[in-house]
């Protein structure tokens, strides 16, 4: 699993949980995190991709990890990014983090397994 796969799996899980009752903060986060808007493999808002990579790069060297570690890093990323939102932007992604806490390793593995081979095998 690459760092980009972690990002995709986070987005896919949260997108599955998206509904009209979500808060404006949840919607804002999801809109900016969307990795499918542009063809360059980043997020809709490049700052979100930069923050994601900066945080995740602090967790492990290289670009690949196990699916299990990717799940652990996803939770760690959301926690650190939420702290960044609280301290730097006087905002939060509390709901995002709470919704993602419902994700199990089985959910995570299923989402990763659903990624197309063209994405899994991309450089």
Radius of gyration: 14 Å
The major pleated sheet works out as:
none
The global form is globular
Low-pLDDT residue intervals, each spanning 5 or more residues: none
Chain-averaged pLDDT: 91
Beta strand %? under 5%
User: How many beta-strand elements?
Assistant: 0
Helix share of residues? 55-70%
Order of helices and strands: HHHHHHH
Structural class: mainly alpha
End-to-end separation: 12 Å
**Separate helix tally:** 7
Question: What this model shows, in words?
Answer:
The mean pLDDT is 91. Helices cover 65% and strands 0% of the residues. The radius of gyration is 14 Å and the shape is globular. The longest helix has 23 residues, at 67-89. It has helices at 3-16, 24-33, 46-57, 67-89, 94-100, 105-114, 117-120. It is built from seven helices and no strands. By secondary structure, the chain is mainly alpha-helical.
Secondary structure blueprint with pairings:
Blueprint: H1 3-16, H2 24-33, H3 46-57, H4 67-89, H5 94-100, H6 105-114, H7 117-120
Helix pairs in contact: 1-4, 1-6, 3-4, 4-5
């Amino acid at each position: 699993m690459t760092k980009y796969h972690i990002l995709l799996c986070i987005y896919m899980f949260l997108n599955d949980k998206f509904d009209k009752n979500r808060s404006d903060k949840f919607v804002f986060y999801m809109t900016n995190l969307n990795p499918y808007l542009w063809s360059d493999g980043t997020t809709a808002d490049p700052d979100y991709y930069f923050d994601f990579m900066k945080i995740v790069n602090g967790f492990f060297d290289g670009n690949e990890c196990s699916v299990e570690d990717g799940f652990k890093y996803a939770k760690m990323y959301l926690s650190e990014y939420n702290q960044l939102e609280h301290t730097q932007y006087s905002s939060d992604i509390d709901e995002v983090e709470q919704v993602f806490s419902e994700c199990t390793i089985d959910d995570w593995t299923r989402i990763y397994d659903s990624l197309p081979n063209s994405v899994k095998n991309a450089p």
